[in-house]
Structures
1.
Amino acid sequence: MIDSRLVSIEGRLVVSCQAYPGEPMRSPAIMAAVAQSVVAGGAGGVRAQGIEDLEAIRPLVDVCLIGLVKRGADGVFITPTVTDALDCVTAGADIVAVDGTRRDRPDGQPLAATVAAVHAAGALVMADCGSLDDALYSVAAGADCIGTTLAGYTGERPITRGPDLDLLKELVAQLTVPVIAEGRIRNPDDALACLNAGAYAVVVGSAITHPTRITRTFAGQLTHHAPRKK
């Protein structure tokens, strides 16, 4: 039986509310306001990064909260240690997103150790994967759901222009746990395509909550437009 926290996001949109280092929106209070805004818009869940952000968001939303911690930007950097994962649970995460690849983890522990610790603390685990082999490894380690978050970023698959629908379909066909689509989902049509391909839920981040990137898209389009004749 699927846990009720996962059931609450089935077929729904989860919005990733994260700001990058050095950006004006990099503030727990701002991310909490963004989280409230996306829930008001109909999001069935929120994905957030950083302990302070999770602590700020948790009291303000009553939807499923997927939490993670990022350490660096290379290798295993998404909730890389058992301690990081448990900190996310303490901060209020219902589901902890962790690196679900087969790469060595900074604390030297296998993925199964993180999963076991999170389960013992009363939360679930979403394994962010980059390939089918990653996903099979994560399911064997006890992950409750699989995300396509790292597809195209681990060297095993090319970076697709939109979501990696081929990988998504492969995972849905071969796994017995929910598969959550995430990564390069740029518009509602992409999101719907993911659901039609069998995704249990869809996570969208930059296309909704990253105004710098959204503005850059609009500005770039206008910049390349031929000037009007006088």
Note: The first strand starts at residue 13 and ends at 17.
2.
Amino acid sequence: MTATHESAAEPAIASAEPQPAPGATPPRRPLVARAGAELVGTAALVAVVIGSGIQATELTKDVGVQLLANSLATVFGLGVLILLLGPVSGAHFNPVVTLAEWWTGRRGGAGVTIREAAVYVPSQIVGAIAGAILADAMFGEPLVEWSTHDRSAGHLLLGEVVATAGLILLIFGLARTDQLRFAPVAVASYIGAAYWFTSSTSFANPAVTIGRTFSDTFAGIAPGSVAGFIGMQLIGGVVGLALVALIFVPGRDADE
């Protein structure tokens, strides 16, 4: 009887232990588990983006409705993925986020090390490609068909700078104000809004950008447009970190 009571109490004790907030990078998880979470999470995200785009174009010819369906599916899917995988890997799913976290923590602070970043980024890219192929397979599309959707116009590149800068400002602003527990809702909501207020529909993610070249569907991007998009996303990441440093300055004591 005593043993039964003790074993029943163990889960309650374990659940009472503090858990890492979604968006944080827990240091205790094995790197292979975190890399797996990044690969699977990025694959699922790209499958949601491309799959919902294919579904939307099959159901309606109205481009506005197509974008609405695509953005809503992405909001819900991204929120769930951050909530599920955040406690494992931090739910980056994005090389810009990974590199920004490495940069901010490179002097011994919290964040990924350069070795961990070198594992995260390839995992995200492989996951994005796998997610694109999976989406195509689910809808009977050719498994690999290079997108012909040109997105090289200057105003679209500016949109990527804005979208990525806002994303980095949001994530690291939440971290600076100890509010990462809101990351699933906040990040998903921002991406959903950025679908509509940026000219590029807010890719804001080099891995997802690469993955979307593998599908010649609504959400695709032509390979020739990828370098420009990734370059602007990296610039947006730098701008976002500069804004974080400017806005979220550590407070000072009254005596100071």
Note: Residues 71 and 193 are 8 Å apart (CA to CA).
3.
Amino acid sequence: MIATSDRTPLPRKFFDRPVLEVAPDLLGRILVRSTPDGPIALRLTEVEAYDGPNDPGSHAYRGRTARNDVMFGPPGHVYVYFTYGMWFCMNLVCGPEDRASAVLLRAGEIIEGAELARTRRLSARNDKELAKGPARLATALDVDRALNGTDACTTDDTPLRMLTGTPVPSDQVRSGPRTGVSGDGAVHPWRFWVADDPTVSPYRAHVPRRRRS
């Protein structure tokens, strides 16, 4: 259950900061997904920062497109993209408008609505795996491109809302290379996670995809 003190919506100014400040500060915060079947709440345990024009690993590195338009602001909105022809991944936009930075939500602990998440993640062996990885997280929460651009900083009854939760103490935050990022962007230690949390996904270095013969 979400404690009453954890239910305050995160204000937009929380996201209107440099991405490398926002990303580790998102750990322990709570994402609520409202659906016709009921709510699902997730405590964030792993994220990755992407810094727009300063970051070869970012979707916005080469400028604005129809796909990445939401990344250019305003902060506190949801950026959803489709990858590998089969999965959706969810980000939270941060920094000033027109700056195009965002935080990928990589993993979390389902703290409410696990029974509903299980119906979407039938392959999960236990509840710790329900949102263990960015595609699994989006699947468990029923997030797709229809939610791209959703404002997560509102007190209204919207599909996605970010709550204050309980921030993770700095001595429990770890950082390292981002998962699956190639090229110059691979060197950045911009993946942040809660130490020893069982819902955090395993690190995997980038492996080039081979074309089928």
Note: The chain is about 10% helix and 25% strand.
